[in-house]
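Entry 14. Ran structure prediction on the chain below.
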Amino acid sequence: QAQLVESGGGLVQPGGSLRLSCAASGFTLDYYSIGWFRLAPGKEREGVSCISRISNTYYADSVKGRFTISRDNAKNTVYLQMSNLRPEDTAVYYCAAAKRITEAHLTQLSPVPYDYWGQGTQVIVSS
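Output, structure tokens:
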């Protein structure tokens, strides 16, 4: 019933841009913090960015200055704008929603407190 669906992934050249969307159904995003995570082959899951209920934002050092997270509660959707993409950004990107989460968990980009997860969307950055 409660569901998150990511979209917007694809194949782009290095230096290109993509905007990922995370659409919620079965619950209202107003009451949730949202995180973006990614999983690349042979690597551990990495926290990318998150946004709190009051729109405080946090970013991994590897994407700071290139990615921007935002939310549109009227559309029940969270976005991840990705610019100046690099081959090392190649991964499956997942969004997750947490109703109860601390600022410490948000700062650390921890996946532990999240209640719902999407199915992921593939991003490939290659020439």
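The mean pLDDT is 96. Will compare against last week's run tomorrow.
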